[in-house]
Automatic annotation (TrEMBL):
Keyword field: Autophagy, Cytoplasm, Endosome, Lipid-binding, Membrane, Transport
Any one GO CC term of the record: early endosome
Superkingdom: Eukaryota
Region: Disordered, residue numbers: 1-49
Family listed: Belongs to the sorting nexin family.
Native organism taxonomy: Eukaryota, Fungi, Dikarya, Basidiomycota, Agaricomycotina
Name of protein: Sorting nexin-4
One example GO MF annotation: phosphatidylinositol binding
Topology versus the membrane: Peripheral membrane protein
Organism from which the protein derives: Dendrothele bispora (strain CBS 962.96)
Gene Ontology biological process terms, A to Z: autophagy of mitochondrion; endocytic recycling; piecemeal microautophagy of the nucleus; protein transport; reticulophagy
Length: 468
């Protein structure tokens, strides 16, 4: 539990970035989360992301297709505005179904393992069981989730330039493109050589990096703190939402139901008090209006806020997965290095035994046992040792190449992860500003409307005269 004096969102910047490196033309700059770098800028660091333009996306107009058949599904109109050179038109659009979004997400994860690819909403199995997945409420909720998913991709300088993203918006033969992408994925083919065989054998879920990089430890700590803040906020707001309007008047926690019951009681009192019936009826109507305002605010402000909060938490989980994958790349390098050291030591031991400069007795219990086993098998002569050395020399050469490749891969992945954290930090700040801004606007609207209702009833209540 965080302390009361600890700001769980202390890394959030509420002002929009004013760095001239990221200025874009007036049209897209009005939307959140779009930056564009200036070529040749001296202020850009080695780990800063490279922006080539903007991509503004939207998901709207859900339509039920094949409505009278068992193969019915919902399609969504996806559209964009962009100045990226990879797109053939500045305003691409097409209709896509949920499975198309799943394909896009799955293959972006495979094609860009170092990028934080946002998570899609679940399939909501309960709606499928009850047959409610075509209800307007469910389709609108999914539309908002898919809209947020594409927004996060569009704010990413690498993902927004993906050929798969371009085809997702532009292709009129999307299913053909899907099959081509599966058959000929971009990038190098995954290797199944020595590195994979060794790391699959050596690594396990309990392995830890022995020489952790302080930069990534700080990042992991920041992610932990951010997710803890989101989880705490989600828990508190869920509790508040349930107490305000949980939809169950029998629970005793529904404040909107309590105001409704109070309004009915006041109206009944008005029938008994003939002299003040009219003011009491007006007061009862105000209570009903206030109860309706509470319910409306829950549906239009609190519920969307909780949905966005949970979505942001899953987005942070995707970022955590990238940090974990970076650790895995470093762990690959460390384990391969250790394996190379062990094979080299065994080769040197055999060379020392053959040359007569050393015996196996001073090289540890493992070497002694290996020599005893070789003696039992009749393979302890120099000829056998020379053959072993020859095989070990080949393996050492392969391992040296594998260690070099693993080291280069680890360094490159670390550099990419640093750039990715800059991108995610910007996306996180943008979403936090948008999410909390919408919450504040909804609360302000609620309190303004509530004040108008109560101020309207005050003069009527004040006109009631009480004889003392």
């Amino acid at each position: 539990m965080l302390g009361d004096d600890e700001d769980v969102f202390d890394s959030v910047t509420w002002d929009s970035p004013a760095d001239p490196i990221y200025q874009v033309n007036p049209t897209p700059s009005s939307g959140p989360g779009f930056r564009q770098s200036t070529a040749g800028s001296s202020e850009a660091g080695p780990h800063d992301p490279k922006w080539e333009g903007y991509l503004i996306t939207s998901v709207r107009d859900p339509v039920k297709e094949l409505a009278e058949t068992k193969d019915a599904y919902v399609s969504y109109l996806v559209s964009a505005k962009t100045n990226l050179p990879i797109f053939s038109t500045p305003n691409p659009s097409s209709r896509r179904r949920f499975q198309d979004f799943v394909f896009l997400r799955d293959h972006l994860v495979k094609d860009f393992p170092a990028c934080v690819v946002p998570v899609l909403p679940g399939k909501h199995r309960l709606e499928y069981i009850t047959g409610d997945r075509f209800s307007p409420e469910f389709m609108e909720r999914r539309r908002l989730d898919l809209h947020r998913f594409l927004q996060r991709i569009s704010r990413h300088p690498t993902l927004q330039r993906s050929t798969l993203v371009r085809a997702f918006f532009e292709s009129t033969e999307w299913h053909v493109h899907m099959h081509q992408h599966v058959a000929h994925p971009p990038g190098p083919e995954p290797s199944s050589g020595l590195v994979d065989n060794i790391t699959d054998t050596l690594l396990n879920a309990f392995s830890r990096v022995r020489k952790p990089d302080e930069r990534f430890l700080d990042m992991r700590e920041a992610v932990d703190k951010f997710e803890e803040g989101l989880t705490l906020s989600e828990r508190l707001w869920t509790r508040s939402r349930n107490r305000t309007s949980d939809g169950d008047p029998e629970s005793g926690e529904d404040l909107t139901a309590d105001y409704h019951d109070l309004a009915v009681a006041v109206q009944g009192l008005g029938f008994l008090e003939s002299g003040i019936t009219d003011p009491l009826n007006h007061f009862s109507n105000t209570l009903l209006e206030f109860s309706a305002l509470l319910r409306h605010t829950t549906q239009t402000t609190t519920d969307p806020f909780l949905t966005h909060l949970h979505s942001l938490l899953t987005y942070s989980h995707a970022n955590r997965a990238v940090l974990k994958l970076r650790d895995q790349k470093q762990l690959d390098f460390e384990e391969l290095s250790d394996y190379l050291s062990g094979v080299t030591a065994e080769r040197d031991r055999l060379a020392a035994v053959i040359s007569g400069h050393a015996g196996s007795s001073g090289l540890g219990l493992g070497a002694y046992l290996r020599d005893r086993v070789d003696a039992i098998r009749g393979a302890d002569d120099d000829r056998s040792r020379v053959e072993k050395m020859r095989k070990l020399d080949v393996k050492i050469k392969e391992l040296q190449d594998a260690v070099t490749t693993a080291h280069e891969t680890s360094d490159a992945f670390s550099d990419e992860t640093l750039r990715e954290q800059t991108i995610f930090q910007h996306a996180k700040e943008t979403e936090m500003k948008e999410m909390l801004g919408n919450l504040a606007d909804g609360q302000i609207e609620f309190y303004k409307a509530a004040m108008e209702e109560w101020e309207r009833i005050i003069p009527l209540i004040q006109r009631i005269r009480v004889d003392v």
